[in-house]
Design goal:
- This protein is α/β, with parallel strands linked by helices.
- It has 2 domains: about 200 residues, Formyl transferase, N-terminal domain (Rossmann fold, 3-Layer(aba) Sandwich), CATH 3.40.50; about 90 residues, Methionyl-tRNA Fmet Formyltransferase, Chain A, domain 2 (Roll).
- Strand 14 and strand 15 form a beta hairpin.
């Protein structure tokens, strides 16, 4: 089948590669435009553009999609069977949605109608959900509101956002290759979402990763995993930002200590008082240093019991 692929970040690379490997004619990849990166402001292409060029797939990286007559004309000339979208990052106008023979389908990293929006993996982990997954869905002008075509779930457990990101990208790659023939033949029937059950997953911001020790250990651990590896949860120690890459629930019962108080620090981690007991910070990073296990950090640093983090 002839496919136009639209995607931008790492998550969208495995499905593109899978479609090409499956023998589909990926006639065009549409990605976000190159952007300056870091202090040098050197222009950098997104992961999907780089992957498409390696695969020999033509690439368009328009600054805008809405009202882009040149892009619409190119899509009409290609006359694709499908437009496949994965984390493209822009709302598609009707002219794009109407271009393919069998419609636009999206690879969305949640169990819709849960977690519509920009950061479904982060939000599912932060919220302490037991499972998440991938939904292949029909695209329409609303935000992730289209009918569902296929859905598979995975257990979250103690996985981080980064780990789930990789797992769901590979799952989405397999699912889209499996689903396209059935969608084209009509064997796979669209199932409308129940809007009454919908939840939303807005973008995450660095400020949200500041640890509030008045929350439970489980909530803090979910936050740490949800912000791993970006933008990383944090607290403060000695007037400096302490990034927290890993944490587990502590064993201390609630004993009246002020939330955020260091109860002890040893090879197992930094145990900190929180609501209902304690949380154990096991991997941290101080400014200008690499992330390291607390056991290694304590070889050259010290943190006294009674120290209050986050002040």
């Amino acid at each position: 089948m002839k496919i136009v692929y639209m995607g931008t970040p790492d998550f969208a690379v495995p499905p593109l590669k899978a479609l090409v490997a499956a023998g589909h004619d990926v006639a065009l990849a549409v990605t976000k435009a190159d952007r300056p990166k870091d202090r040098g402001k050197k222009m950098q292409s997104c992961p999907v553009k780089l992957a498409a060029l390696e695969l020999g797939v033509p690439v368009e990286s328009p600054e805008k999609v809405k009202g882009n007559v040149e892009l619409f004309e190119r899509l009409r000339a290609i006359a694709p069977d499908f437009i496949v979208v994965a984390a493209y990052g822009k709302i598609l106008p009707k002219e794009v949605l109407d271009a393919p023979r069998f419609g636009c389908v999206n690879i969305h990293a949640s169990l819709l109608p849960l977690y519509r929006g920009a950061a479904p993996i982060h939000r599912a982990v932060i919220d302490g959900q037991e499972r998440t997954g991938v939904t292949i869905m029909c695209m329409e002008e609303g935000l992730d509101t289209g009918a569902m075509l296929a859905q598979e779930s995975v257990e979250i457990g103690t996985k981080t956002t980064e780990q789930l990101h990789e797992e769901l990208a590979e799952l989405g790659a397999r699912m889209i290759v499996d689903a396209l023939p059935g969608i084209a033949s009509g064997e796979i029937k669209p199932v409308p979402q129940d809007d009454a059950l919908a939840t939303y997953a807005p973008m995450v911001f660095k400020e949200e990763g500041v640890i509030d020790f008045s929350r439970t250990a489980r909530q803090i651990c979910c936050l740490v995993r949800g912000f791993n590896s970006w933008p990383t949860a944090s607290t403060t120690f000695g007037g400096q930002v302490m990034k927290v890459h890993m944490a587990v629930e502590g064993k201390s019962a609630e004993g009246g200590a002020e939330f955020g108080t260091v109860l002890k620090a040893d090879k197992h981690g930094i145990e900190v008082a929180c609501k209902g007991g304690s949380v154990l910070l096991t991997r941290i990073q101080m400014p200008g240093k690499k992330a390291m296990d607390v056991s290694a950090w304590l070889l050259g640093n010290k943190i006294e019991p009674g120290t209050v983090l986050g002040q």
